[in-house]
Amino acid sequence: MSVESELLLTPEHRFAKIIEQTRNEDGSELSILNLGPTHPATHGIFQNILLMDGERIVDAEPTIGYIHRAFEKIAENRPFYQINVLTDRMNYCSSPINNMAWWMTVEKLLNIEVPKRAQYLRVIVMELARITDHLICNSILGVDTGAYTGFLYVFQFREKVYEIYEEICGARLTTNMGRIGGFEREWSEEAFRKLNVFLEEFPVAWKEFENLFERNRIFIDRTVDVGPISAEKAMQYGFTGPNLRAAGIDYDVRKAAPYSSYDDFEFDVPVGKSGDTYDRFCVRNAEVWESLRIIRQALDKLPEGPIHADVPDYYLPPKEDVYTNMEALIYHFKIVMGEVPVPIDQIYHAVEGGNGELGFYLISDGSRTPYRLKMRRPCYIYYQAYTEMIKGGMLSDAIVILSSLNVIAGELDA
Amino acid sequence: MALETTYIQEKLSSKFGNKVLNFEMQRDIFSFEATSDIIHEVIKTLKEDESLNFHFLTDLAGIHFPDNDDEHQFSVVYQLHNWIENVRIRVRTYLPENPEIQTITDLFLCSNWMEREAWDFYGINFIGHPQLKRILNMDEMVSHPMRKEFPLEDSGRTDKDDRFFGRTVANK
Question: Are A145 and A219 in contact (CB under 8 A)?
Fold first, then answer.
């Protein structure tokens, strides 16, 4: 008998035995509920098998890997400049952060100093991405508590950010933005104009969004003291980002190990107290304001200068140069054919992603592809705490907890 | 006073002798090697010693080195972080064929899924792990696909001619 058919014959889950052995005093019994894999409330493809006592969750078992793409395996077979397209698709709510994190890792390996202007522009685009990430997370949390309006209201601003991305790189969702050493081309005037319009209009809407939820009786009832996690536990579970800061620890990679000129800007790290769903919501709200603050500073202080580092050995030249300039054509060929040397080294580079510390551990053996690329995906690391967070709670709480953790299936499974 | 790398080295060397070795700065991260039989103790010391206080496990990665000698076929790399002093450290240990190593799930809860991932992709057996089963790949799979002997694509594919895609036997 094949393995598959054996599995089909014995479909019982380990919870089945527990149900068989447990009987409540009133004669009722426990039951299994599949939350997902494709359920609107999971916002992604992953399954939670719940053991339920009425509406109360007794135990849970998460199953992930439904959209696993073998990111690391593919990356180990591709040259550095081709790996960028793989990073877009992880946390697709904030792809530019993944893009920039990858380029910065490569630049660290190759000892490339990026010009100040490119660094500032990277900061702007990363903070825009953080805003969209938090915007989606918080507005979807609103939807999960029954408030659809807030989501529709702020969602238009994600579209506006996408239009800015479009001006910068031509793509909206899977941005594939940047190059080794900076950007491909100078940002257009239209990009800056759209950015300024966004900076004018968005804060008004965000303030209203905050007012809609932060003192809303129903929202508070659904989120305060729901899925709390202590600072100690959060650290044990490897939490970073807003989920950790909601528990009261002010760890932020932008402050702890500033990259891309983050130390040039003034911003605060918002922290919560109890680490419950409401705190996670508020921390994200506050971070959006800080991101706006950073973008304004970066725009005010934006230096003149080149848009990319002068490293022709690694920087893929723009297409118009390749078609018209012999030097550019030669460099293009050299890079694509993998003729340029790469140092043998081990690098770990981390950035503050939308969800927390996003890190790349890269081992280079001198060839054009990484020997080993391990990615620290914040979602993957803290999703394992979900089981503990929902145990003993109601089913409806499990939905909002999942939402407030901001688990993105693309990043979880990679 | 900031946590000095020489202090970390002295502290560990005095406790574990020559079982901790090859201390070096790998770019901005201080790293060293520990033998696999004491790795649990080393991580425990790094975490619980008050003067070291590496209380946060950033990452755990498995690596395959098929070209190494028999005793160094696999590696597990731990990256730890002391937030108070803001110091990162990297500990690596090498394992032979049929790799086995003690779990650190009793020290860091987050290592649970990281170790399951290393088992799934590299077949590294973490002894004492509470639920060592595949996590991202399907349960019925028999191989550990991140090992270097497994090529990226199914080599039996006949629906395309590799010559037209720039692929050779070497880079497949």
Answer: yes
| Number of alpha helices (DSSP H) and beta strands (DSSP E) in chain B | 3, 7
Residues in chain B with CB shorter than 8 Å from the CB of A384 are: 109-110, 112-113
Q: Which two tokens stand for residue A109?
A: 């390996």
Is this prediction's pTM over 0.90?
yes
What's residue A12's pLDDT? 75
Residue B88 phi/psi, 5-degree rounding, is -105, 155
- Cα–Cα distance between A168 and B7 in angstroms, integer? 48
Helix residue spans in B39-172 (DSSP H): 39-48, 111-122
**Confidence check: pLDDT of A157 > 90:** yes
Q: What's the pLDDT band for A43 if we cut at 50, 70, 90?
A: confident
Q: N- to C-terminal Cα distance for chain A?
A: 33
Beta-carbon contacts of residue A333 (< 8 Å; ≥ 6 apart)? none
What are chain B's domains?
5-151 (3.30.460.80)
Size of interface A-B (CB pairs under 8 A): 84
Residues A299-317: tens digit of each pLDDT: 999 999 999 999 999 999 9
ipTM over 0.85: yes
| A178, B87, A230, A351 alpha-carbon torsion, rounded to 10° | 0
Token pair in block for residue A132: 């969209």
Burial (CB < 10 A; 0-12, 13-18, 19+), residue B16, is middle
What gap in Å lies between CA A155 and CA A149, rounded to an integer? Answer: 10
Say yes or no for a CB contact (<8 Å) between B29 and A348.
yes
Identity of the residue in B27, B110, B171 whose CB atom sits nearest the CB atom of A381 = B110
